[in-house]
Design brief:
270 residues, alpha+beta, Serine Threonine Protein Phosphatase 5, Tetratricopeptide repeat, SH3 type barrels, 3 domains
Length: 270
């Protein structure tokens, strides 16, 4: 393997992730202290996972990271580290699954993107994605442009400013002419950032996607095991869109447009 994966330097979603290492060894851990989690055991488990990963005990590191996840805590950094451990253990599908989850939570992070691109380049299937309509690309770019904390701050700050300014308009005897337009602008900014945040947090207008975890799966023309209905075979790590579910089967669409059915237990939703 010519490129190794680095560990996340810090714990929270706002913390930076370690870049992929350029040598055969993972990058050393940073010395920064993670923010208070409210659960000392989870924080200790996360650090223990990092220590085990550095010691090349990837199975132990994965167990520690998954134990953190069981507590209900999550962040792009945690999914990133889980993906790294899975990759080291040769579980390409699970690695891609967690990199995709990390990217969904932190779409602008270049380190996550680089690891995901590298992992997907190692899958068995040579799937060439269909070109995406430019309007869809533009909407996705706008939705993912601002980081989550900025959207939250913009929505709350704009709403608070609008309330104050409208109060000035209603209560002050001589409010300046600039107050009403400024209040309307603040309210519009709050509405736009709030709508953007809602789209991202609720997954509105997003398709349901999954990653194939089984080593290989025959894709059928109908939800049936009949060998005569086999269309083609896909392999571990393939990313698919889920269109329908029926009696333990998924109708999937590959990135190159091919359509078929696979057993639901062979893939996991991102």
């Amino acid at each position: 393997m010519s490129r190794a994966f680095g560990l996340a330097l810090t714990w929270a979603a706002l913390a930076g992730l370690a870049p992929p290492a350029s040598s055969a060894q993972p990058d050393p851990l940073g010395q920064e202290q993670p923010p208070a989690l409210g659960q000392d055991n989870a924080e200790a488990l996360f650090h223990e996972g990092n220590r085990l990963y550095q010691a090349e005990d990837y199975s132990g590191a994965l167990s520690a990271y998954l134990a953190v996840q069981v507590t209900g805590l999550s962040s792009p950094a945690l999914d990133y580290n889980i993906g790294n451990a899975h990759f080291r253990l040769g579980k390409l599908g699970s690695a891609i699954l967690h990199y995709e989850r990390a990217r969904r939570a932190a779409p602008g992070d270049e380190n996550i993107r680089a690891n995901l691109v590298l992992a997907r380049s190692l899958t068995a299937d040579d799937i060439i994605p269909l070109p995406e309509f430019w309007v869809v690309q533009a909407v996705r770019w706008v939705v993912n442009l601002a980081p989550r904390p900025l959207l939250i701050g913009g929505a709350l700050g704009g709403y608070a400013a609008a309330c104050v300014l409208f109060a000035v308009v209603l209560l002050a005897r001589r409010a300046g002419r600039w107050v009403r337009p400024l209040a309307a602008t603040a309210l519009a900014a709050a509405a736009l950032t709030g709508a953007n945040l809602a789209v991202r947090e609720l997954g509105m207008a997003q398709t349901e996607r999954a990653v194939l975890l089984a080593e290989s799966v025959p894709v059928q023309s109908a939800p049936s095991d009949d060998p005569a209905l086999r269309l083609f075979t896909i392999h571990e790590g393939a990313v698919v869109r889920i269109d329908r579910r029926a009696d333990g089967w998924l109708e999937i669409v590959l990135e190159d447009g091919q359509v078929g059915w696979i057993p639901a237990d062979t893939a996991e939703t991102i």
